[in-house]
Design goal:
ten-stranded antiparallel beta sheet; alpha+beta; globular; about 700 residues; 13 helices; TIM Barrel; Beta-galactosidase, Chain A, domain 5
Length: about 700
């Protein structure tokens, strides 16, 4: 009764501030009439409470509160179809079931070795009361830090195929506050700086995006297990009412599925502060199916170098000619550098035919088995393997999946024959520019996060897995935790990486990275490509970072594959800072955010997988900060050598970015570490066990 009272109290709050009615099929901003809870559930710790509702029109809704305070007000659920009436009104509850789960599972690689899946589940089945009698289940899972739900459609005579025009899924954020979001449906795909606005200033946002309410509560919206479906964006209707906006399709309906099927999970992370929001990203993994690939010991986290940064500096080229970067001789020099410094991978871009001419326009000319004449790929691969350095393949498609899929089996077989165990794929094109097979042998144009690309990416990942090849997708579909099911999907891009600092303006400002940690990084690992010790982009334009910050990225911005992205000569000129890049781990047993605030700063500690060594990284925005960080994460009773790479006393990303202090001290778990972060700066620390 207490739970029901708290939830009903939330409805009273909502009813006190009604919104004017608009097009109810699309936006449904009118307040529900005679809403009543028909089922309730709580999170395992009892702090989050869910009520499923039906109003006087037979609309299904849900509401969420935390510790008795409304978070998500009554929000409606439903669908618009292209060939039948909307599924929205005239529903009745057919039945409910409840269950609970509390188990832990092991990641083959990740930020945490062990992940706990502790949730309560409520499943509600609804059916229309009219003659169509269409049936819809909604499965809710409540974690201590999240509420997630998905729709499930059983096989049924009056809904054999769902031609979905739009989901009518709502998220009614009760409290005002601020939001960090990147715009959806723009030409540059996912790669935009974040807007920082009031919640009622959101336009149409990519997910994940993050809100902080007036009371300090942190709320992020994302999705999990995006399989054979269109990616979800979020559009504001008015005030705090948000709604799903599925990525378009060339065929009209945004999703076409035969029943039975289930949608991706719609996920609402809810935490009291920023560090706990970051830790809540395990919810996304828990909502995905377990590993389907069996033994994945062949998936190798690693650090790598690349024939890559020179292209962004315009001192080398992808295409053939006098500036061609991917030559046999240069690749061998890069392999020598990698082997000497303990890196086990060399990314080679521009190795294959197809880069000459306007490759961006069509991508029709790319071959994934034919190298340029000045790149002997078999000799380079042999040379690298002899020195313990694997070539990382590169398949840029220009988002022409007609061409890529026609070559995919041969391309993967070719890579496997060379000992290549990891491939970076690329889909460079404007948004809406994916070239996909159309009717009668023609081509149609799709979006990077539409249903067609959801199918395509899984095809690439599963075909690669058959050949024990890992995939790192750039210009990808968003990360929704499918790396749990397919652990060879080892990383991806999906936001602005370091290459934006090589080009013109705008570069990535320091506050972007501190926003990234609490938005994009909630989804999963990002191939950010850090480590630019020259601190210079194209034409010797300065990169907005200190030296210490470039080192801190290896700890703060997680990926199981980390690139030492700068040119070898810049590492050789900076042996002190470079030492940290050589030492830092890429795979972890444990991760802890020690301090953080969205858009301001973050300090993270991580324990190396299978070893007692810890690493710490911290970054800040344009404001200098000082703090004291307890070292209680270290093993009690053990001494550690702290190898500290911090901003110098006079460091500032605008005036003195190269000022760095490198020192060592002995510490224990009972000690605290003073941390000074210069404006646009950072800190990186390695803790090496010394004994008792």
């Amino acid at each position: 009764m207490r739970l029901l009272g708290l939830l009903l109290a939330g409805f009273v709050v909502l009813a006190a501030t009604p919104a004017p009615a608009q097009d109810t099929a699309q936006t449904d901003v009118a307040q529900p009439s005679a809403s009543r809870p028909v089922a309730t559930a709580t999170s395992p710790d009892g702090k989050l409470a869910l009520a499923i509702t039906i109003n006087g029109e037979g609309r299904v809704g849900y509401a969420v509160s935390r510790e008795g305070q409304p978070v998500i007000g009554e929000s409606h659920l439903g669908f618009l179809f292209a060939d039948s009436r909307q599924l929205l009104r005239n529903m009745e509850l057919q039945g409910t079931s409840k269950s609970s789960k509390d188990e832990s599972w092991q990641q083959p690689w990740g930020e945490w070795r062990s992940v706990r899946d502790h949730h309560n589940e409520l499943v509600a089945t609804f059916q229309e009361k009219d003659k169509l009698r269409r049936t819809m289940r909604v499965r809710f899972r409540l974690f201590d830090n999240a509420v997630a739900f998905r729709y499930e459609f059983p096989e049924q005579p009056n809904l054999k195929t769902a031609n979905i025009v739009e989901e009518l899924t709502q998220f009614r954020v009760v409290q005002p506050g601020e939001a960090w979001w990147a715009p959806a449906y723009e030409s540059n795909r996912e790669e935009y700086l974040y807007n920082h606005t009031p919640i009622d200033g959101i336009g149409t946002a990519q997910t994940p995006f993050t809100m902080r309410t007036r009371s300090g509560l942190h709320v992020a919206i994302h999705e999990a297990a995006l399989i054979d479906y269109s990616g979800m964006n979020i559009a504001r209707v008015q005030d705090g009412l948000l709604k799903a906006s599925l990525t378009p399709s060339s065929s009209g309906p945004k999703v076409v599925r035969d029943t039975p099927f289930e949608t991706p999970w719609r996920v609402i992370l809810i935490t009291p502060d920023a560090p706990s929001l970051y830790h809540a990203n395990t919810v996304i993994l828990n909502l995905n199916a377990p590993n389907k690939l069996g033994d994945v010991s062949w998936v190798k986290p690693r650090k790598y170098v690349g024939i890559w940064w020179g292209m962004h500096l315009d001192t080398q080229s992808w295409n053939s000619g006098p500036k061609h970067g991917a030559t046999t001789a240069y690749a061998k020099r890069m392999i020598d550098f990698a082997a000497k410094n303990g890196f086990s991978g060399l990314l080679v871009e521009g190795w294959n035919k197809g880069w000459d001419g306007d490759w961006f326009a069509t991508g029709d000319d790319f071959s994934f088995t034919e190298p340029y004449p000045d790149f002997n790929i078999r000799e380079v691969s042999r040379y690298g393997l002899a020195k313990g350095v694997h070539i990382i393949g590169h398949h840029e498609t220009s988002a022409n999946i007609i061409n890529y899929e026609s070559q995919l089996p041969a391309a993967l077989d070719f890579a496997r024959s060379l000992g290549i165990d990891s491939i970076k794929t690329g889909y460079v094109s404007d948004a809406g520019g994916v070239q996909a097979p159309g009717p009668n042998g023609g081509r149609v144009f799709e979006w990077h996060e539409g249903q067609v690309m959801s199918r395509h990416h899984l095809k690439v990942v599963t075909e690669a897995a058959k050949r024990q090849i890992a995939i790192n997708a750039h210009e990808p579909i968003k990360d929704t935790g499918l790396r749990r099911t397919y652990p060879n999907w080892i990383a991806r891009e999906g936001q602005r990486g370091m290459e934006y600092n090589a080009w013109g303006e705008p570069k990535n400002p320091p506050h972007y990275d501190t926003e990234l940690l609490f938005t994009r990084m909630l989804a999963g690992p990002m191939d950010f490509t850090p480590g630019i010790l020259s601190l210079m982009g194209r034409g010797n334009t300065p990169i907005p970072s200190t030296l210490a910050r470039q080192l801190a990225y290896y700890v703060t911005i997680y990926s199981p594959i980390q690139m030492a992205a700068d040119l070898p000569e810049n590492y050789e000129a900076n042996p002190g800072p470079f030492q940290f890049i050589k030492d830092v781990a890429v795979d972890w047993d444990d991760t802890r955010m020690l301090a953080g605030s969205v858009g301001d700063y973050a300090v993270i500690a991580r324990k190396e997988r299978g070893k007692p060594t810890w690493f710490l990284g911290g970054i800040t925005d344009e404001e200098a900060r000082s703090m004291t960080v307890p070292l209680s994460f270290l093993e009690p009773g053990r001494r550690y050598r702290a190898e500290i790479y911090s901003d110098g006393d006079d460091a500032d990303f605008r005036t003195n970015p190269r000022s760095i202090a490198i020192e060592q001290r002995t510490v224990r778990s009972t000690d605290s570490l003073p941390v000074r972060l210069a404006a646009g700066g950072g800190i990186a620390v390695r803790f090496v066990p010394l004994g008792r």
